[in-house]
Design a protein that fits this description.
154 residues; mainly alpha
Length: 154
Amino acid sequence: MFYQFWRFISPGLYKKEKKLILLSFVSGFILFFVGMAFAYYLIFPIVFNFFILMTPSNVSLMIDISNYLDLILSLLISFGLAFEVPVIILILVTLGWVKVKTLEEARPYMVVIAFVIGAILTPPDVISQVCLAIPLWFLYELGLFVSKRINLKA
């Protein structure tokens, strides 16, 4: 389906636009799966251990497969989407919709926004919120760095 869409729109695009779309698609695809791997191999064990440690000693832990899968899927999708931030920033800067200086001035607000997004996208515990907010902020900085480097070359 993507191939057919690409064949439809590519004749009307300039060479620079084609390069931007292909680069964005490939890097976005890779970053989404890197985010999912990050969540599965690093964040999920931390969150799951947190839940196990918070279980009172007089209560037996009974893990429901439905809730378990909901937790895994919400973490995987949340982190996959969060890892798209550098691609989004790069696209916005390259298209000229946002200037790098504006994004640099918004740094303090981005920290707060990262924690709000972490609270919305993750399950209702502070550990997973922090585990999403910190990489989100780092990815914002990475997007700024890459955008700056590309603007210097242009």
